[in-house]
Each structure stands twice: as C-alpha cells, then as structure tokens.
C-alpha cells in the first residue's frame, strides 16, 4: 500500500508534525524575532538558566509557527517540555503541571517550558492558576493565541510576560518549508518531484499558513504516488520519482486553483472588478469576485475597507444604510474571524450591489476640496463665528445669528457660505433611491435659506 511507503507517512503522524523544526535555525520566517540576542534566541540558548525565566506570549495567525517556536525553545535549551491545549485542559491540569514543574526544578534542577495553545480560550480562573508558577519561576510559560492578548489575557499574566507578534509567512518562507518537506528524510524523502507551477499553487493556496501548505503537499504526494503505483503495477517502475503537477494539487485539495498573486497585478485586477461590479449593480459578478478573493486568501480587512469605501463613494445618500451595513460587516469579520466571516462579507456585498447608486456626496466633497485648494474659500460670516470667548462680541461675532429652531419649519433665511462663494452648490442629489426624497426636500430648503 502507498501509505506504508517510507518517507510518505510515519504511522498516522501528519507531514506538518513530522516536519516541525527541531531548532530555531530550521524555523522559516519570523526573522524579526530570531535575530542574535533576541529574547527567543536567548531563551533557547540559555541552557544554564542564567538569563532568568522570561515567559512569552506568541500572538499571530494560524500556521505561523507558534507551536514550532515553543518546541524549538524547549529542545534547544534542554528543558522539559509540556504542552497543554486550552480547548481541553482545565484548572486541575494546570495545577498538576505546576506541581510537577516545581518538583523537577527542586529535585533535578530541570526547568519546564509549558506551552499553552489557544490561551484566549482559558477563563480568568484558569489563567489565574498559571500565575504562581510563572511568578515563582517553576515554569517558563510560552502561550500562543490568535486573538489580541490585550483583550483575551488577564493583566497580571500580561505584565509578567513578553508579548511577541508573529507575522504571516511570506511566499518565500512557504517555499522553503515545502522544498524541505519534499527532500527531508522526515518528510517525503525525495519520493516525489514537485513541478514549479505545483509549488506555486501550494504556496498560493496556503495563504501564509505553513501547516496548510504541508497538508496540501502531503495530499498531493499521496495522490500522485497512488496513481503512479496503480499504473506501474506488475511492470518495471521508472527510476525517476513521480511528478506532482498543478493539476495534481488541484485534484488533491479538492478546490479550484486561482491565478491570484496578492502582491501582483491579479490582486488589483480582482479587487477592481469587484468594486466595479458592485457599482454596476451586478450582484452575481460581485459575489463571484468576492469568492475569488476569499479562496485566494485575501486579507478580509482589505475587502472590508473596500466595501466601506464603495458604500460611501458609489451608493452614498441613495441608501445611507449601505455604509452602516459595510461597517457592521467589518466589525463582524473582526469579531468572528474567517471562514465564518465570509457570510457577513457576502451579505454586505449583496446589499451594496443591489442598492440604488449615487456618487453625489463623493463629487460634492471633491468639488469643495478643489475650491479650497484653488483659494476659493473666503472668511466665515461674522454671525456664524464663535462668540463665547472674551472680546468676541465686541468684534461683532455672533451678532445677527438666527436660531433655526425658532422657526416652525426648522429652517430660515440666513447666509451660511462665505460671501465670496455666493450661492455655490456642491451637493447635487440624483433621483435614485433615498436621494429622490432628499432632492425634493433640499430644493425647498435652499429656497428658504436663500430667501427666494
């Protein structure tokens, strides 16, 4: 069977686990945290415990190496390594680790690195149970979280730990991870070859997540080895390892490969098509381009920002609720994360695409800014100037100002623009959606204000 071939599987241990770096030197990416003399490097090289026991909180996206760094620190320094998951561990488990760490230090002089994954899932009581061990140096806590520690970790623990932010892996970093897994004895041991396009596809699909890249590689290797094994059964096999192609990757991970470079032309082409489809009220095209960005691993915050701009620029007062929906979608994505965030993103996209359109507000502010830059602004009329500071009334500030609420209509005749601008009109509402009503009301308002 293919699964028994050496270099492909080691029992049921996933490739991502087998390829986990054994030292900090093997870690891909996070160079800003691994410079000589950095806290992590010092912690890993401090085999005698002479530099103290600084606990660390690692904050970053999934697949950026939080568990890897913790294990590399423990193995490099010769310390005892204990791993807990906040999903399954309770206060009892934490206290047991603390007791064992205390005994290991006092009886054998061996310090313990406690790696706590997803610490943001721990309650306050559970995090409180960590404090004695951290304060007294029984354990060196290395906690990992994908949530902002300022909101998910208690203050006493934060103040006793060093907060380090991990960055999403670059495409170059992921390439190193993939290449190493293909050739390393712990990985695929050279049993397959990787086509450059397939390599690029795996990197693209991983979207900065090393675990996802290795999972896709493992699935592709299993698929091509199974296919080549069935084709050569009963005949002499080729000496050359089978080649993983882009098609192999697409079939293995069961998703369409997208030509999408988040730092290249396609990135700008897709977001441009997305915004123009919303502006053109083609809801189906809008959802299509949204799906392409999501599947390509586009930063959802970038999509949210563009939706907010679109709601203001292309819809505006034709449906003022569009901006509320776009901002709510951004908040929702920030709150629940991905992949669930795709749902509010889709809702906002559909709302904006089907909403009536007007760029009148956008044109109004640009025209006004153009006048200001051209020197067309004049002085604020005296009756509108601030009259609250000493001497203002003596200068005539506020004199003659008429209070609109004194009029039954809530609007009265009064000069608001500087005299130099006369009756300049910046905002010209359309007849679309809500602006149809605004247009009729604004015409009456301007007549009253100008005394016509």
Provide an overview of this structure.
It contains 19 helices and seven strands. The protein is α/β, with parallel strands linked by helices and 452 residues long. It folds into four domains: 136 residues, P-loop containing nucleotide triphosphate hydrolases (Rossmann fold, 3-Layer(aba) Sandwich); 84 residues, Helicase, Ruva Protein, domain 3 (Orthogonal Bundle); 90 residues, Zinc Finger, Delta Prime, domain 3; 83 residues, DNA polymerase III clamp loader subunits, C-terminal domain (post-AAA+ oligomerization domain-like). Strands 2-3-4-1-5 form a five-stranded parallel beta sheet. The protein has a two-stranded parallel sheet with strand order 6-7. Helix 10 runs parallel beside helix 12, helix 13 runs parallel beside helix 15 and helix 15 packs antiparallel against helix 16. The chain starts with 14 loop residues before the first helix and ends with a helix. The N terminus is likely disordered.
